[in-house]
Amino acid sequence: MKLRALLPTVLLLVVGVVACGDDSPTGPISPEDAEFNPGLNIDLATFTELPSGVYIKTEVEGTGAEAAPGDVVTVSYELRLISNTIADASPPNLSFTLGSGRVIAGFDIGVTGMQVGEERRFIVPAELGYGAQRVGPIAPNSVLVFAVTLVSIEGPGTS
């Protein structure tokens, strides 16, 4: 009889735990673990892996000086998830000081070294993106795929 009396409580606990979900990280954490949608046309062997773990690939060469930390850069970009869903895009251009922490670390790393007019794709591992937090449509521990064009570079300290 006591078991029968406890059954509703046990069921309520089980339902409560399942309904609350699991706060553990989800999604692939590294580009090597990601299953990219074929529409993204990503073959990691054609990208260069930087020491940070960010993968870059120049699609169109640029000209002039390379963007360096401290420079104010203006970019246009599109961010896609590995499912090929667009998660964000620049409105139409984004200006920021490279290396200032205004953007995610992986974006700073991917833009560093670009030249004006260069079009580059880069793949950012979760720890250099949004990590274990959810940001809008971006699930925790998501690998991020950027397509970026460097529009302009201004010297350090200018805006």
CATH topology descriptor: Chitinase A, domain 3
In CATH terms, what is the architecture?
Roll
What is the number of helices? 2
Q: What general outline do the C-alpha atoms trace? A: globular
CATH class: Alpha Beta
Structural class: alpha+beta
Q: What fraction of residues sit in β-strands? A: 25-35%
Describe it for me?
This protein has one domain (25-154): Chitinase A, domain 3 (Roll), CATH 3.10.50.40. The longest helix is centred in the first third of the chain and has 19 residues, at 2-20. The chain has helices spanning 2-20, 105-111; strands spanning 48-49, 55-60, 63-66, 72-81, 86-89, 94-97, 115-116, 119-124, 144-154. The strands form 2 sheets. Strands 1, 2, 4, 5, 6, 8 and 9 form a 7-stranded antiparallel sheet that branches. It has a two-stranded antiparallel ribbon with strand order 3-7. The termini are far apart. 27% of the residues are buried. The chain contains 2 helices and 9 strands, in the order H-E-E-E-E-E-E-H-E-E-E. With 159 residues, it is an alpha+beta fold. The model is unreliable at 1-25 (pLDDT under 50). Helix content is 16%, strand content 31%.
Summarize the model shown:
This protein is of the alpha+beta class.
Please outline the helices and strands:
Blueprint: H1 2-20, E1 48-49, E2 55-60, E3 63-66, E4 72-81, E5 86-89, E6 94-97, H2 105-111, E7 115-116, E8 119-124, E9 144-154
